[in-house]
Amino acid sequence: MTPPSDQNARQPGDWIADRMHLIDASGIRRIFDLAASIENKIDLSIGQPHFETPKPIRRALADAVEAGHNGYSPSPGIAPLRDALQQQVDSQYQHDDRQLMVTSGTSGGLVLALLCLVEPGDEVVVFDPGFMMYRHLIHLAGGTVVTVDTYPDFDVDVDRVAAAITNRTKAIIYNSPGNPTGAIDLPGTIDDLARLAERHDIVLISDEIYSRFCYDRPFHSPATTNPNTLVIDGFSKSHSMTGWRLGFAHGPASIIEQMIKLQQFTFVCAPHPVQWAGLAAMDVDVSPHVEDYRRKRDRLVERLSADFRIGGGAGAGAFYLFLEPPGGNGTRFVEQAIPYGLLIVPGSVFSKYDSHIRVSFAVDDQTLDTGANLLVQLARQL
Predict the structure, then answer these.
(1) DSSP string, 257-317
(2) Residues 265, 365: one domain?
């Protein structure tokens, strides 16, 4: 076989699949990298709980390791955890056709869902602003991203969603409470969105990772109204287990069975000993942490409301505020904050607009107060 000539040989960049050029490096990761190089930083960029993983969960992980639960588990998850989660889901929804599987984090669940549902040419509706991973995973699956704007108050307008639907629409990805805004839609809006998806035979994927963090009204899932809703959830945020990679998904058996099949050939299974820790986590009361974040939310809103426009119902859920700084330029504000050691995330990471910043209040009170003072100082300088 004759080797290719130097003129026709591939260059290193030619080896990369075209789909990878549709995916940008995470803007939040760049903030993390910057944070590692700054001493005495005030980090309000982090998207994970600041409290320690509860001791019973840590103990269960150690016990599972010592008990030898270190090999592969069944791809759908260990039976005790699946059964406990399935019982919880059945009690909540009472759907005849709602099956559950354990995933490698909610991110793993989203990867499986989109690869199982989306083909090249299919359209997937997402909301702006929204979690940046959604659009990249849609591209990975070969789909087309269709964006529905929720500015200025980050409330979903179901009429706008209806107008975005075509005969190529395959799915809608919905996140309430939302990242980065902390917004929670009214139950009526959520039900209308669920009925819209059902009427058009579109899969509604509900990312419910922040469902425990609702401060002003109870959590309401679109699966309550639309039994074909595919729910993605997990333990990362509620139990401070972000690095443990433990999630779960539940929805119509026809979808979950395909996701389990794909998991066998991708993630294989969620980390085995962590699944036993997840079983212990189901008995841990996290409400004190939720109440603490409610208090932090109120404290930060009171401090910042005179100098920033606060969207998302003033952080009705999750642990973020999405702020419009004076001048309405998020990147500029972030850049001006860096010399003070203050780390926040520009809204452009989550949106086609660069008008906001995301601030996390998942920090200790001293960091929160120092950060709030710096935010006010910078806003007044502008």
Answers:
(1) HHHHHHHHTTT-SS-HHHHHHHHHHTT---HHHHHHHHHHHHHHHHHHTTTSEE-HHHH-B
(2) no
Report the CATH number at residue 331. Answer: 3.90.1150.10
Name the amino acid, one letter, at 11: Q
What pLDDT, on the 0 to 100 scale, is given for residue 346?
95
Dist CA 103 CA 107 (whole Å): 8
Cα-based distances in Å from 345 to 29, 126, 355: 10, 20, 12
Considering the domain boundaries, does residue 1 fall inside one?
A: no
Collapse the DSSP code of 60 into the 3-class scheme (helix H, G, I; strand E, B; otherwise coil) and give the result.
Answer: helix
Please give the average per-residue pLDDT across 174-199, as a whole number. Answer: 97
Nearest partner of 377 among 301, 322, 297, 304, judged by Cα: 304
Q: What is the pTM of this model?
A: 0.94
Return the structure tokens found at 128: 């702006």
Give tens-digit pLDDT for 240-273. 999 999 999 999 999 999 999 999 999 999 999 9
Residue 147, domain extent? 73-281
pLDDT in tens, 329-377: 999 999 999 989 999 999 999 999 999 999 999 999 999 999 999 999 9
